[in-house]
Amino acid sequence: MSRIGRLPIDIPAGVTVEVTGQDVLVTGPKGELRLTVAKPIEAKVEENQVLVTRPDDERESRALHGLTRTLINNNIIGVTQGYTKGLEVVGTGYRVAQKGSSVEFALGFSHPVTVEAPAGITLTVEGNNKLTVSGIDKQAVGETAANIRKIRKPEPYKGKGVRYAGEVVRRKAGKAGK
To answer: Per the database record, which ranges form the Large ribosomal subunit protein uL6 alpha-beta domain (predicted)?
Structure first.
């Protein structure tokens, strides 16, 4: 039995979980999230808890058991607390500025790079080199942060670029001088 999948998920006050067939709808103070559970796995609500069960010990069922439980738990955490991911812009002349709901980066290119916030995601600028990506969907927050980081990844020689908050960039020695 999956050590993660067999654990019940407690439903906090102010959150409702509705299971209809393979669809799970989680509604809370920050919004609502919908999840479609993969076919052999079943979810049910009993006594203020969500239980995830699998019908057999097939390889696919075992793989999806813990995953499904974690996805439902992530949705419950998302509608109560939300998720945030911090980004830092490092480099001389590199900066970020808020432009309405979007943000504009100056990253050493010949043009500024504008990033629009996807639906359900909030981009907040602190100072001129810190950016916070927040929302209720963990996957969307992580994907948005990764796409922003992809614009200019931190390079190993000077460490310049967009990095996650607290990320350690391994530095390389440059060319040996004469």
So the answer is: 11-82, 90-164
